[in-house]
Amino acid sequence: MKTFCGRANPSTGALDWVEESEEYDYHQEIARSCYADMLHDHDRNQKYYEGIRSAVSRVRARGQKVVVLDIGTGTGLLSMMAATAGADFCYAVEVFRPMAEAARSIVEKNGFSDKIKIINKHSTDVTVGPDGDMQEKANVLITELFDTELIGEGALPSYEHAHQNLVQAGCEAVPHRASVYAQLVESELLWSWAQLQPLEVDGARLAAPPAVARCAGAHSVCDIQLSQVDPSSFTPLGPVLSMFSVDFSKPVSSSFQAHCSQFTARSGGRAQVVLSWWDLDMDPDGSIVCSMAPSWTYRQPQDAPWRDHWMQSVYFLPAERSVSEGDELRLTVCHDDYSLWFKRNTCQTEAPPPRPCCTCQAHLVWTRPRFGELNDRRRTESYVGALRQVLRDDDGVCVSVSDGSLLPVFAHMLGAKKVLCLMSGSVQVLEANQMKGGVELLEMRPEQLSSSDLGGQQISVLVGEPYFSTSLLPWHSLCFWFCRSALSGLLRPDASILPGAASLHMVAVQFQDLWRIRAPCGTCEGFDVTPMDEMVQSSLEFRESREAEPHPLWEYPCRALTRSEPVMSFDFRHCVPQQPISSRGSLAGRCHGVALWMEYHLTDDITVSAGLTEPISEQGDCVWSRHRKQGVYFFRTPAESSADGRAAVSYSFTFEPSSGDIKMDFSVTTP
């Protein structure tokens, strides 16, 4: 059986649908999963183990047989904990077939096959009875169905169904309850991810479209490593509030609910953003707590456990409002069966807010990092400065090739007589600033552009950020090079190209924590989980699974072990070559992997980096762009992670003009 998979095509900027074998999809899911991150999360594992021991003891104290239902068992770890704690039998439910098979192997390897039954179904399809999947209802319910938003993986419907059909009344639950917390803040940094801010270009003000300012924005949660957002970049307007709790030992409802908390403003400012996280109480007394709070809420920030499978959430209010110190405020959180949203209430009788929905289209086109990039004044100054250098006083044609870019607007503001925008444009920005006649939006592929579209003229200036919404890895932006090549017949011989060139950069790094998502586990809390490691390794070696991965490295501290160096260069002043471009070299020392990013040389003296934004410090500290994801190639073999520091890592990069992609290979040699 075949399946269709979407794949970014750097040579066209489009998402191509290609036919793959049925194994391809789940190998990709396993290879890119965070199962290893969860198994390396000792705090999570330990708190679950303590909660399970406590629940089993309480049932035993009532003189009852302990029957466990473990929903979303994954590797079977929590069921093995329950069996070790004294459970008589465990029903472990896992819907993902490869993971269910791995769980069976792990359970067997650890000698629990007579105590644990793996059920490869969704929990809502599990049956109870003499001929069912479960012989009887469980009296201990164990789950790990949570995501960063707590309920985004369908925890509430699963709990609702389990209480109605799979567990006994008055059952013990691990975790026992979850509590959601929130804090209202003002933050220019975070707010720039939600709304387009006014800009100044050559002394003229570029206003944000009113429709965007009035829009409630995208409804999806913004999940980030909030510990990496410096507290100096936001102002708390009130205390951390306990918004609501869910008791998992009792029947749970997945229907719409609203909860309101009242508080006194501690400082004045603009109510813009809600920071949110949740805790799990593993026992009824709340003595065993697994917290998702960011590190800056801890007395000793270094004591905060690191995890990537559960982070923190940022919610953007529908509109910013002024707050004065001492104001009595109300913050409302609503949730349906899968998501949360917040609103600052003006009165007690105000109706609960509806789920946010983008009405301006901009939040559907621009991602949150993209909003931040467009609002970056320093970056804007670089592009405006470069445009000043390349724009001409004649009646030439300036063509912009990038998705949702403001460059054509800037070019018009700087005096370009004729500006054409290919691909998706910023219609609302043009309308809001009475510029629609100054920039012509064609929204066509470069190869479709003809001389008649240019009024018989040739292109004198070709500009691009470059940015393409389908790009996943840094070098996918080389689509600009292919666009430039497609337009070569329409370019003036002396046409200016901005950027004139780009370079791929690399640095060897040692991650503080991110290495955990790809590191083998071996033994987890005393249980052998090597079948899981073997399954992940097999998927990593399947076809294209072992390649660089996109990660926003500003969220993941790392230390540079080498200098940053360019490993490939691309000259946009010339067409894409017919033959591949190759580069080879080597690195020395122990590292978790390499970070890769693009730098765009707008002119001879202006460069914009999509990776490191400051020089590496003497201690190896790195400051990364918040706007684009960098590529990370993780080293996985023992030699690549050896502690002797003497290993040499040889690398090779090959740019393939036929696909527009960059293939890379790393090998290790030891003396």
Q: Summed up, what is this model?
A:
With 671 residues, the chain is an alpha+beta fold. Helices cover 20% and strands 33% of the residues. The relative contact order is 0.11.
Q: Which bin fits the share of residues in helices? A: 10-25%
Top CATH class of the largest domain:
Mainly Beta
Radius of gyration, Cα only, in angstroms?
Answer: 27 Å
Structural class: alpha+beta
Mean pLDDT: 91
Uncertain residue ranges: 638-646
Beta fraction: 25-35%
- How many distinct beta strands? 36
Shape: globular
Instruction: Supply the CATH superfamily name of the largest domain.
Output: Hnrnp arginine n-methyltransferase1
Looking at the overall shape, the CATH architecture of the largest domain is: Distorted Sandwich
- Total domains, how many? 5
CATH topology of the largest domain: Hnrnp arginine n-methyltransferase1
- So how many helices? 15
Query: In this structure, how is the largest beta sheet organized?
Result: 7 strands, antiparallel
Oligomer: single chain
- Quote the distance from N terminus to C terminus: 47 Å
Describe what this molecule looks like in 3D.
With 671 residues, this protein is of the alpha+beta class. It has 5 domains: 2-32, no CATH class; 34-144, Vaccinia Virus protein VP39 (Rossmann fold, 3-Layer(aba) Sandwich), CATH 3.40.50.150; 178-364, Hnrnp arginine n-methyltransferase1, CATH 2.70.160; 376-498, 3-Layer(aba) Sandwich (Rossmann fold), CATH 3.40.50.150; 506-668, Hnrnp arginine n-methyltransferase1 (Distorted Sandwich), CATH 2.70.160. The strands form 9 sheets. Strands 8, 11, 12, 13, 15, 16 and 17 form a 7-stranded antiparallel beta sheet that branches. Strands 25, 28, 29, 30, 32, 33 and 34 form a 7-stranded antiparallel beta sheet that branches. A 5-stranded parallel beta sheet has the order 5-4-3-6-7, sandwiched between helices. α1 packs across α15 (530-540), α3 crosses α4 (77-85) and α5 runs antiparallel to α15.
